[in-house]
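Field reference: sequence -> structure
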Amino acid sequence: MYRHESGVHVDGMLKDPLSYEYLPAGWVGRETEYVLGKHSGSALVRALLDKGGFPVTEDVVARVLHGVKAATERRSKAGHQEMFAQVEAFRRSHLSGIDPGVLFAALERETAGAGLETVLAADGAAR
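Structure field:
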């Protein structure tokens, strides 16, 4: 909520912080952060150049912004993919309940004579 990358959001925040943060970050012990990445716009680059004392011309802003976007596109996505896989595995194993397919398979085995010993494990697997 207090980290902004989108060019439109950052531009609005630089003009009026209340445009996207109706509760100031400091009220909840946070700080407003701006991410310089593939979704950034020229407003953030312009503000950072100005803050750093660098010349702020449209040519410089455009070249810096192009470089930032190119650099973020070249970064490896392996870490993101691994984290998404871990989140998905956690969601499947802890948040999604029992897969109906597992339930149906257990019921089919019971009706085929497997007996009542076929039960659903806590993790949703039939045994």
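Note: Residues 116-124 have pLDDT under 50 and may be disordered.
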